[in-house]
Specification:
The complex is a heterodimer of chains A (299) and B (408). Chain A has 299 residues and is mainly α. Chain A contains 13 helices and two strands; from the N terminus they run αββαααααααααααα. Chain A has a two-stranded antiparallel ribbon. In chain B, strands 1, 2, 3, 4, 8 and 9 form a six-stranded mixed sheet that branches. Chain B folds into two domains: 176 residues, D-Maltodextrin-Binding Protein, domain 2 (3-Layer(aba) Sandwich), CATH 3.40.190.10; 196 residues, Periplasmic binding protein-like II (D-Maltodextrin-Binding Protein, domain 2, 3-Layer(aba) Sandwich). The chains are: A mainly alpha (299), B alpha/beta (408).
């Protein structure tokens, strides 16, 4: 038996995919990696925008300054709180909503459409709306709590350092839970009904069905959605910026916001870039996890 | 027509077209400004200017105030700055440092409208070395707004000193509808960005207190900031939202009756009268610790060093600071004209607010004309004031932070 030889793939066939992909790669390099490299390069310099002529290489000085900067550590602590509360809260609320919307009830289609509204609204609109809800003088939240006799005087939710960060977290939770709800709802519909029927015949309770069928069935969706949302929430500054601008004092500073304020308001692009690079490195673990997961799905 | 003639005609037309196109692009003035007002007169002014100056077109871009200077500085570095723009004095040192401005002295010398500009305004807006980069276009002076009906009801007179101010604020902080909750506060304090004017009136007025080395950290300086903190923390005469309150919140609270006094300028008087009628009036800010200090609010125009056609840009900005045009500009902004003719015929504001402005002029000041002032106004003061109000900094620590910014 003679071995059949596979004819060599012509050079044009081998090169063609690379040629077809190269525009996308070049665009990605230009609009994603070039600014990233520029940010890293700037973080190694003293670069204040209103002194454009002085662009001095200072090595890791900006990073050393960040580590000694108390506001950096305050912002980091707030960032951890911000992520650790917002993402699980969004996920739990999204899961509960998805389970509810997966039931048969009248007007279910309308309910599914309405639940998307917070997600569809621009962040700035949401932030302004919640500023009014929290308003110490006219806000409905204080009015409701006062009428229910739960508080005796209005609480300045956004002006009190003990409540400001959590008030914004609640806002972002409200804005972001529909993302989880929609993803989980799609995941729920992919679980075959026969699993539940078989489990019911075997005498499994609703809770046992949820724990042994629903949750494992949703694991992939939950993991991907959580990783994605984690990265988005960590980077989200628009809601904080509109609601408090980081105040009162440093009460609602997060690391991306601190980097933004340094670069955009203080015009200190060197230090601002160093803060952004620090934050990116901290977030890199989650990004790698997401990329590995996404890569596995494609494979 | 022969072929040769056709070719020549075509070449001539091409040349003429090119010349016209280059003339048109060279004669365009790209102008940046910021108006919050819904009633924006800029297109009318542009139309009038273009009719009077054939061949020059003006592209006027209304840039949002919140990011105005961020965008301006960025555009200068990127080489896409406008030809001319509306600018405030506290931006002057940075713009000079960036070598972004065109000196105006030579043009001012030959300008027929120079005599029309109100006395001293050009001195106030000159750079530290006396060079003029700015042409004034409007100005205001901050004063104390108060609710006449509330003062009458309690038998109070507008406060002349800080002690009067404190007593009045305490009396005015009350539960007016008997539901056990405070619904009117004595003073609407602006703890957010821009509130340094409120703080300045109560602190920088004190004898020997300013931005010089050790002046804010002196006993008088610290006492001034402590006075502000006590009003909030001990007397509770500011609304609880004061640490985060900005312009809209402070003005809204006063117009809505949540506060009985606040500090602002004539620019908001039309809205105040519309909301409160005769129940609002104004007086100069109180004398505190031996002196008075209020903020002079400026707005000028400038030509940028990279302007395509500086002569056209000058014609446009000098047009805005000329009689009639300056009045039209200020009717919309609600501020005061810089020309003598327009000032003499000014009937836009109620007289009591014009009087309060004029009475405040003798002790009106500008913040130091140095690069640090932008940081002071944008970040250092708001963050330090908020931290002091919520108890994270003492008065001495807050003043030390500002002192360090200016003097270290």
């Amino acid at each position: 038996m003679t071995a059949t030889t596979i004819p060599p793939v012509p050079l044009s066939r081998r090169v063609l995919p690379l040629v077809m992909l190269s525009p996308a790669v070049l665009v990605t390099l230009a609009i994603v990696f070039l600014p990233m490299a520029q940010a890293v390069w700037m973080s190694l310099h003293d670069y204040v925008l209103f002194r454009p002529k002085s662009f001095d290489f200072v090595g890791l000085k900006n990073f050393a300054t960040a580590l000694k900067d108390p506001v950096f550590w305050i912002s980091l602590r707030h960032t951890v709180l911000w992520i650790a509360i917002t993402v699980p809260a969004q996920m739990l609320l999204g899961l509960a909503t998805a389970l509810l919307l997966n039931q048969e009830f009248p007007w279910r289609g309308l309910a599914r459409a309405l639940v998307i509204i917070p997600w569809a609204l621009p962040s700035v609109v949401i932030a302004l709306m919640w500023v009014w809800i929290y308003d110490a003088n006219y806000g409905v939240l204080n009015e409701f709590l006062l009428r229910m006799d739960l508080i005796s005087t209005s609480i300045p939710w956004l002006a009190n350092p003990d409540t400001a960060l959590y008030a914004i977290i609640l806002t972002l939770t409200w804005q972001g839970f529909p993302f989880f709800a929609v993803m989980i709802l799609a995941g729920l519909q992919a679980i075959p009904r026969s699993y539940y029927e078989a489990a019911a015949i075997d005498g499994a309770s609703k809770w046992q069905q949820f724990r042994n069928i629903t949750l494992p069935g949703l694991a992939g969706v939950l993991m991907t959605a959580t990783l994605l949302r984690l990265i988005w929430v960590a980077n989200s500054i628009d809601v904080i910026f509109v609601m408090t601008g980081g105040g009162p004092g440093y009460s609602t500073y997060t690391l991306p916001l601190y980097a933004f304020i340094n670069a955009r308001t203080g015009l200190d692009y060197g230090y601002g870039s160093a803060l952004a690079v620090c934050f990116t490195l901290l977030l890199l673990g989650f990004v790698i996890l997401y990329l590995r997961r996404a890569g596995r799905n494609i494979g | 027509m022969t072929n040769k003639t056709k070719t020549r005609a075509f070449a001539a037309a091409l040349l003429a077209g090119t010349a016209l196109a280059s003339a048109a692009s060279a004669q365009n003035v790209n102008f940046w400004y910021h108006f919050d007002n819904a009633d924006n007169p800029m297109s009318d002014l542009v139309e009038k200017f273009e009719a009077e100056n054939p061949g020059i077109t003006v592209t006027a871009e209304n840039v949002p105030w919140n990011s105005y200077y961020d965008q301006l500085y960025t555009s200068i570095v990127a080489g896409t700055a406008p030809d001319a723009a509306l600018v405030k004095l506290n931006a002057l040192p940075r713009l000079i440092e960036m070598e972004a401005l065109e000196p105006l002295d030579a043009r001012l010398e030959g300008w027929e409208g120079l005599e029309e500009i109100q006395d001293n305004l050009l001195n106030l807006t000159a750079a530290a070395d006396g060079t003029h980069y700015y042409l004034p276009v409007q100005y205001v002076v901050l004063y104390l707004y108060y609710r006449t009906d509330m003062f009458e009801e309690l038998g109070l007179t507008p406060p002349a000193t800080c002690d009067d101010f404190r007593e009045a604020a305490k009396a005015l902080t009350r539960d007016t509808d008997g539901d056990g909750r405070i619904d009117t506060y004595g003073f609407g304090f602006r703890g957010g960005k821009g509130g340094h004017d409120h703080w300045g009136s109560l602190v920088l007025s004190r004898e020997g207190v300013g931005f010089g080395a050790g002046e804010l950290t002196s006993d008088a300086g610290v006492a001034g900031t402590q006075f502000v903190l006590d009003l909030f923390q001990e007397d509770a005469v500011f609304p609880p939202s004061a640490p985060n309150d900005g312009f809209k919140e402070v003005i809204g609270a006063f117009q809505g009756g949540t506060t009985a006094m606040t500090i602002h300028h004539i620019g908001s008087s039309a809205g105040m009268v519309e909301a409160l009628g005769d129940n609002v009036s104004a007086v100069p800010v109180p004398e505190c610790g031996g002196g008075r200090w209020t903020s002079f609010g400026d707005e000028s125009t400038a030509i940028f060093a990279n302007a395509q056609d500086k002569e056209a840009a000058w014609k446009w900005i000098s047009f805005l600071s000329s009689p009639e045009n300056n009045a039209a500009f200020n009717v919309a902004t609600g501020q005061l004209p810089v020309t003598k003719t327009d000032s003499a015929n000014w009937t836009v504001h109620e007289q009591r607010f014009v009087d309060a402005t004029i009475d405040s002029l003798p002790f009106a000041h500008l913040l130091p004309n140095v690069s640090e002032t932008a940081d002071f106004a944008n970040t250092v003061w708001p963050v330090a004031m908020q931290r002091a109000l919520i108890g994270e900094l003492s008065a001495a620590e807050m003043n030390a932070e500002i002192d360090a910014l200016y003097n270290d």
